[in-house]
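Hello,

Following up on my earlier ticket. Below are the two sequence lines again, exactly as submitted.
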Amino acid sequence: MVLAAVSLLGSSPAVAQLGSGTLTGKVVDASSKQPLADVVVTATSPALQGEQTVVTDKSGAFRIPTLPPGVYTLRYEGETYRPYSRGGIQLLSTVTLRVDAELLPETLRAEEVTIVARPPTVDVGSARSGVTIGNEFTSRIAVAPPGGKGGGARSFEQLADIAPTSRNDLYGASIAGTTSPENQYMIDGISVGDPGFGYNGTPLSIEFIKETSIVTGGYLPEYGRGGGGVLDVVTKSGSNEFHGSVFGNYTPWQKQPRFPLAQDAISTSTRLDSVRDIGFDLGGPIVKDKLWFYLGADLSSQTFALTRDLNSLQVDSMTGKYRYNDEGFIVSEPIAGTRRKYLAEQTAFQYIGKLTYSPTSDDRLELNHRGTPSRSGGDGNYSVDYETGLPTIYANPGSSAIIGPYSSQAWRQIFDAYDTSLKWTHSSLNKRLTFDTILGWHNEHSANLASDGSSLGVDGLSGTPLYVFGRTNPAPHPITDFENLPDPSVCINPVMDGDPRCPTGQYAVGGPQILQDRKYNRYQAREIVTLVTPGLGHHIIKAGAEFEYMGYSSGREYPGGSVYLERAGGTSVNDFRRYGGLTAPDAPYTIPVLRYDVKSLSFGAFAQDSWSILDKITLNYGLRYDTQGLYADQGRGLILPNQLSPRLGVIFDPTQKGRAKIFANYAIYYQTLPLNIMDRAGSGEPQIRSRRPVRNCSPTPPAAADPATCDNPDNLLTLGGPSSPDQKWIYLSTGKLAIDPDLKPESSTEISAGGEYEIIPDGRVGLTYIHREMNNVIEDMSRDEGTTFFLGNPGSGIATDFPKAERKYDAGILHFTKVFSNLWLAQASYTLSYLRGRWEGLFRSATGQLDPGTNSDFDIISLTVNQYGPLAGDHTHEFKVFVARDVPLAPQHHLNLGLTARARSGTPTNYFGTHATYGNGEVLLLPRGSGERMPWVSSFDLHVGYAFLQTKNQTFAITADIFNLFNQQAVTRRSQNYTFRPVRPITGDAAKNPFVPGSNNKVIDPTRIQAADGDARAFDDTDRDRTFGAPLEYQDPITIRFGVKSTF
Amino acid sequence: MTKTRKHPEISGAARGDVGVVLRRIVRLPLFFALSVGLSAGFLIGCGDQPKPNCITSLGTFAMKLIEKPGTRQESPAMACANLGIPAVFNADPEVGFTSYYALDGKGQPDYNKGSLAVQTTEIGTYFFNAEGEGIPNTAMDGGKVYSFGPYAVTEPDANNICTVPTMSPTHVVLAAIPAVPDDPATPDDESAPGQPAIDAMMVWTNVRVYVTAASFGSQVQADLVFTRRGPTGETCTIGYNTVAMAPAVPCRMADADGNPMMNADGTYVVDPAACDPANGSGISPNTDYMCAPDSGFCVVNGETIPALK
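Thanks for your patience. The regenerated structure is below:
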């Protein structure tokens, strides 16, 4: 018999604490509909220690804040009313659910009241956009594909691209047109972003995570400071029962990816070889209802197979000239007997420990510690880059060729991150006043070291200089200059002066490229006070202050002090790189290891109010103040003061039952500047150069160069002109970066609006519009062709002669979300977006350069010509569909099926030329985006799982995740280098219809192109690269991952 | 009838001893720390951007010589003109100013301890022509082809000036290089003009470098005493106020063969547009510049620095 009922309806002020949720509601008399005061409301959950109890106020309202996410039961008890409890309330982190109740007077006959209830899913108190992904999703959908950043351990950041406006980029996930280092990465309330570069610093496995919220926009000041999205993670906790799991995953296979034809005597292909991880977790009570623990550990490794071939380019036997295929590539063949195989491997260990303590019902403490150490490379193996998850050859993550002995080509890479945090939540005044105190420490160590195990310094390979053969004139060295072939005749052109058959663009001997050892500390303290109070409706007022110190100690060196590069003419050798300086004319010194200690102090404060007016409209408004001071190795470096970010959001629930919302939001976001800018430009990178004849500095491979002869002062050639006090040495850079006195901090403005409607139980559709635009961007600039630089805002301050660094993003998103219920879940979205401007963000996708604030986009004015247009991340159309279904085969046997379907239209392409100073691919010959767009890319992923439910709490599951099920092989990157000759951009009328008729926009009228190399010869069609437009990369091929998991 | 529970505030308070202790242990210091942080935050917010270190542009400078009245001493009359002062200098007024830094305790440059060297194209050309022929500099006073001296300040002063009060003298004493006649037996022209014996001395004092982010060591003013002694005993000494600007950008109009066009008075036909930053000259847009007809180079407009728009 139904005696009482609970309805979940009405609007709610939804400003929940980060990492926790809130239950609120109003209790009324079921017969009179009058609010009931002094009703005791008790929340219980397996996720909660003890129980949380509050009483309703005069208006019948109650609020239970800072609840860990989980499934809740609420019990309502009022004098003279029949008690009632309602279970199955799924509370997500950062969400406020309104659970209203109507209590029956004990005097009333039950049959007289009928109330139908089901929980709402629309977050009617917030204008925030994004998705929250819990275990139901990650255990039923194929997520976190092997390979890529965090792929071995299945890091949470791989979940980000599930959100509609997100996509993977080189260093993580790009959200709403921004770049991954602009995001904030939060685990259990503390920031774990890498202090140096901004990407995720703690690649924690999704096995230890309860929920990941990917907040893509529209967020309030309490979320802290950042220009991109927020990845907010809540880790698992213990409970009153012992629960745990043992799991293992194995990716044994990936189909061989496609590679373009080798155009050099040396080529290397990479393929994911295997990925495996094994781990466990366990949580339970130490003291029931008081003290819980949670432990977990995971050991993972990933291996890539590297196959190195030597190649012979094919020539016409009559003319001696190259033969080309239809794509413009020179036809080449591997040379028999030269194939070598190598491995790139990474081993990572993760652990997590958590204590949850509730000394009173008003106090909850969480002590967290976790670590994610990893090692990679050395002992004959290559490394897997921690920043990108790609195999690293010759310091290049991704596909690169092994162009020399192991000593010069491999790194040993270390990436360790440790987080410790204490979070204390204290409530008083019947839970109306809450204090949240968070202390956190993020500690990180990353290093790229020599493969022989030597640390930075002068020993071993760390003290052996790299020497690069790079002659191009009259022809590159043949491979036979460096390596013995079984049959050297394959490199001989039968025709005199014919094209070289085994040209080796570069060959490197000696030690490796630049070595780095970086240590970071990030200390955080945050105090947030929350007050719930009536006043023309209900208010949730929050005020907070936070303080952060980031420290960065770096050491870097060019092994042996310098990198020698044989110049194009093949007659002399430069110090291509040498840290050092001059104390007087021609009085040089070399810095064996450049060491800097830099730091940043930030302070932030905010106040915000979420004001629910008459249960119909919620007004969220707030203001954030931030200031950041960065310190270089020699004193103050950069001040970014007085950052004021207002936020305003309005949410209207037309149904007044929590089933729909219409919202609009306005926000300004400020970006924290990572410390790399202080370490490099802010402290200065003193570099000098000298030159010597090749006869005095040319090692015989595989031997390394001898600095004693290469640097003999008697051998140095004259570099200085008649007005230069230095004749043998020149400065490449010296001094610290100059700062525009009127420098403005980096910020963006976001306007969003939309609506959501619950169309089926637990399922809602929504339409959202987002506009984001940069206000000010910080970049370094130079007026003397890259000799000295200053830091400023392009287009303003002292840099009015530079164009404004624009980035504009507009998106319309249609989405449908169905949480897991009735044995299925779904999430589908279509995003129509436009991203254009001159500035991509904190890294440059074309080159992978990650120097936040000092990338090369605005280095010199000539690089900014033709720069405005659709940016690399501009996908006009994007579909994402995730569907999962639980199929019960028998009472204890379940089949889980999850399907992912993705499709997106292609990115823009460009016509690049070589810049006389900056090198290949840096001149936009035609306005950005003038090329044909890349083709659509689509893929399907399948998750198949079989689960055996031994008992209620014991499950054994076997899963298979198949990524790119149909092995689709669309082209994902084409050659965009139109010419490798230095040229000037085509502007004005010449840029209109510049193509040769009938060339399908592949050939530009050569008379419109001006060479910039000082050569009198006019640009002609022989300067055009024949492989322009040819495919270079394809989709990742089909990959299968198997998993087993036993849960108890 | 169901009995309601105790008011949770009461029960919470009764059990709240640990919470009170925690509050005392953690919260008070944290509030204190945040207060300190707040103060620090406002201090951070009130600060100016740090000044650059004392530095000079790494490119060459174009220098303008302004003769100080009453400083000219020549013997015999017209000796200065006969020795090519200042015409030879003006033919290529490029000057190199380079900053150097002492090492700090870590073996890395200490940007607070800088020095400056200056070398003119005119003297440098004499010197390197001679060096190429194996002719040494025989200046007895230790003079070199360049002048060198320390900055007197660790960072730009209130007027954004880094001063080098005195520098070692530039002094080259070079034997003559005989002219080489053409060998009529060969098709090539082997002739070389030779170089007379040179005794040239430059004494730089009160060198002032203007250093801001917008003019990053790209303007220099200095006092110069330039002395030449000719091979037959003629002498010329002139005191100059010099102003220099980087980068050195020529603004000479060229004829069809690429040779500079000259006016009747010996000055250059100029192309002021070559100096315009909008045309990629590299000159800071805040610089007040002009195209000087006597040298055909872009120089600061005026006789003092900073020359700003």
